[in-house]
Design a protein that fits this description.
This protein is α+β, with helices and mostly antiparallel strands. It has eleven helices and seven strands. The longest helix has 13 residues.
């Protein structure tokens, strides 16, 4: 069965000249924004996207990728040997939307109905840490932190009141957390003690433990709206 590009359906457009309305024409389909989220730290294979987007079928993922590619937001390319596999990545224009994710995430975290116990992908927890980083709490701290989530790893660097994150190896980091995204979120935002998580086999913490404890204090969720 041939897939139909949903972005081409005239009934799904708002027919409104407002830039925000056209933005929703481009990325307003269900799952489209989350597909973009998963590409924010670099190219991913189709199977990687499918694995980290809980509840998304292969059929719908294909449709969303086709729609985003047709709109110039995502591109598909083949990695050079020895990988020689197809990957999807955001275009430069697509990556410009990253600040909007931070604003939307910070705003939505204030909702009383937000459920932090739902699944988190590795990318979503790293983007959450970027969003909820509190420069005043970090002060003049300088810290190099590695995050390992199964076969995915990230490097967070804190300096001069800013946090930068990238998909990278963790060798040489001052602190390394090897865990699951939801476990790390529970430790950072919920105050779950590192020692208790280690005792339960949910976390492997290596490096400077004092710096690890301090790192956990650099993040704050916003107050609920009501």
């Amino acid at each position: 069965m041939k897939l139909e590009k949903v972005t081409a359906k005239p009934g799904r457009r708002y027919h409104d000249a407002c830039g925000a309305a056209h933005g929703l024409d481009l990325i307003g389909e269900r799952w489209a924004l989350l597909v973009m989220r998963e590409l924010m730290f670099g190219p991913r294979r189709f199977t990687d996207l499918k694995k980290d987007l809980c509840g998304l079928s292969a059929n719908v993922l294909t449709q969303r990728l086709e729609g985003l590619e047709a709109s110039g937001i995502v591109r598909r390319r083949r990695l050079p040997p020895p990988a020689s596999v197809h990957v999807y990545e955001l275009t430069d224009w697509g990556r410009e939307l990253k600040p909007i994710f931070a604003l939307l995430g910070h705003w939505a975290a204030r909702s009383p109905t937000h459920d932090p116990t739902l699944p988190l992908s590795p990318v979503s927890v790293v983007m959450s840490l970027e969003t909820m980083f509190d420069a005043a709490r970090a002060g003049k701290a300088r810290l190099d932190v590695g995050l390992v989530f199964g076969d995915e790893s990230f490097r967070l660097r804190i300096a001069d009141g800013t946090l930068t994150a990238q998909r990278a190896e963790v060798e040489g980091a001052e602190v390394v957390f090897d865990t699951q995204p939801s476990v790390l979120a529970g430790a950072i935002y919920g105050g779950a003690p590192f020692a208790a998580l280690e005792a339960d086999g949910l976390l492997v913490l290596t490096g400077d433990r004092a710096k690890a404890e301090r790192f956990a204090t650099f993040f704050a969720l916003p107050p609920k709206a009501f």
